[in-house]
Design brief:
Blueprint: H1 10-46, E1 50-52, E2 60-65, H2 70-79, E3 86-90, E4 93-99, H3 107-126
Antiparallel strand pairs: 1-2, 2-4, 3-4
Length: 127
């Protein structure tokens, strides 16, 4: 139970995290997340298998994977335990929707994610 009755007390979680990290720690955490989002967007732009929908303004990166349905690809990655990544409708097209919320991951983790996406893409196309 929370003071709000039946609703979760999200403000307390934010306050607790801020107390644990401090102003500088919170800043560093957000900066790391923005660096990871930039890395992901750059990687997508340089890949022949993907198309970036637009440069991210925050931590959400939307992109197309050529030759496959985004919903099917996301479902297969999730079902096989390879990735938990979402999909969205952007300007009438289904796209992959990556949200970089964990500052503990590394650029090599993101690179491995994209390699898994390409491997799954090729499996779907060849099936």
């Amino acid at each position: 139970r929370s003071i709000q009755g039946g609703r979760r007390n999200d403000a307390f979680k934010l306050w607790s995290a801020w107390q644990a990290l401090g102003d500088n720690g919170w800043h560093d955490r957000l900066e790391q997340q923005f660096k990871l989002a930039k890395f992901a967007a750059d990687y997508i732009e340089q890949s022949a298998d993907f198309e970036l929908c637009q440069r991210p303004e925050y931590l959400t990166i939307c992109f197309k994977v050529y030759g496959v349905d985004a919903t099917e690809l996301c479902d297969q990655l999730h079902a096989n335990g390879e990735a938990l990544i979402g999909h969205a409708d952007v300007r009438g097209e289904q796209v992959m929707r990556l949200v970089v919320v964990n500052p503990e991951i590394s650029t090599s983790d993101l690179q491995r994610l994209f390699e898994n996406i390409v491997a799954k893409q090729r499996n779907i196309i060849s099936a």
